[in-house]
Amino acid sequence: MRLKDRVALITGAQRGIGYAIAERFVAEGAKVVLADVTDATAEADALCASGGEACSAR
């Protein structure tokens, strides 16, 4: 887990490349904050369900 104890702010993370990056960061142990124009709570919940730590910021 190369990113353990790191926090990443990922913009445009509700779908596409941004979400794929968020998935990869979570897999590497990072805590992620998903920032998007619209609410990304469902995406943050999905990342948490996969064992990661994530929240949504708008």
UniProtKB/TrEMBL annotation:
SUPFAM superfamilies: NAD(P)-binding Rossmann-fold domains (SSF51735). The keyword Transport does not apply. Keywords: Oxidoreductase. Pfam families: adh_short. Gene3D superfamilies: NAD(P)-binding Rossmann-like Domain (3.40.50.720). Belongs to the short-chain dehydrogenases/reductases (SDR) family. This is SDR family NAD(P)-dependent oxidoreductase. It comes from Paraburkholderia madseniana.
